[in-house]
Amino acid sequence: MRRNRRVKIVATLGPASAAPEMIERLFLAGVDVFRINMSHSSHDGAKTLYNAVRACAARHRHPIGILADLQGPKFRVGEFQGGRADIETKSQFRFDRNETPGNAERVFLPHSQIFDAIEPGHHLVLDDGKLRMRVVDASKTEIVAEVVVGGMLASRKGISMPDTLLAISPLTEKDKLDLAHALKLGVDWVALSFVQRAEDVHEVRRQIGTRAAILSKIEKPSAVADLEDIIAASDGIMVARGDLGVEMPVEKVPGIQKRITQMSRAAGKPVIVATQMLESMISSPMPTRAEVSDVATAVFDGADAIMLSAESAVGQYPTEAIQMMDKIAIEVESDPVYEAILYATKTMPQPTGADAIAAAASAIADTVKLGAIVCYTATGSTVLRVTRERPGIPVIGLTPVESTARRLALVWGVQSILTGDPENLSHMVRKACRIAFEEGLVKPRDGLLITAGIPLGSPGATNMIRIAFVDESGAPIAEDV
Q: Which domains does the chain have, with CATH numbers?
């Protein structure tokens, strides 16, 4: 199934979209990758969703990616007398280790890691940003803070520390169990929450190995500060704008989004823009104009994927939300200014032979006016290098590895197809021409560019470019090295 856009769509599964028939409808409406939120999914529930997606992919003979999103550490205050307390602005408020119910002056904080790391001058954000405080004194047993923005605070509400680097793993005990279950199922991507530094990604990599690709969620100021190393350590990046907007001033989030997108593109790592993209469509069949512009901005910036969360998980109009996102993306990519904006952030290839080949492939295809680029790949690295250049023609990723085909479902502009390794160079050219022709990506007399690693089947050895033209039957009629 060929999409009429290059940006990919990720949809979160939930009560509104868990039925197999709804998953199929969402796929037909445009979903390329389905997200299972482990914060809200039991292991049995995740297995049911996983099997339904795989069954849909088998019926349509089309690779669909599955992303398991881990919850990560969550920090909450203790209980209040009467369930809540009115915290006054400019007052002082205390967090302590006393488990008795709190009041307007204090509350129990059951997280020793916070007491160990917090310092005077650090800020505290509570209840998704509704209340804000600044620490004036801190010890191993007590934190005293000045209330900058007060309000009603209920029991068990969340607390975050945007200035504080906590000495904790990004994986809780729940996450470890969820991760083991997701890997046993065979998910393609694992989204890692609460990433503070690159070492967090390395830690999880040691547990995952090559069983799934790691998508780091950028949602903390410390992650923004260590962005370059986190991108290098990750297989992909998610701009988690919801939590990022809680921990940082909201006016900074658009600029950070653009920076993350540009840096991820430069590194050849897929990047997803997520959170509240079509939020009003949870309860409305139409988005706001601002939401349409928000989605369009991510597409103009060249993000690999755009994601729906509550809109598809619990919303009243999940199919309509996917269809709307699809229409916005198609309209943007056909806009006369799209390519000018997209290539304004074009980056230089990295100083490797494989990246030079990939950059040359895009330049040749544009110069000769070819119809498609075909990449033979075992691990997906060849395709990632080519799409990093954001070529203006379709990219076909041919791979004998099913997990690679599914992971590439997240990558900008790629149509991944599962196929066996070619027997030799001549067979490689014939197969590439036939598949591109059958998929409707080239017409008779059109040319296509083929790139691969020689010897065939050797991962990470992209070193060859070949040009071929197809006849009326889809067979090659001429070749050039």
A: 8-72+170-334 (3.20.20.60), 81-160 (2.40.33.10), 348-480 (3.40.1380.20)
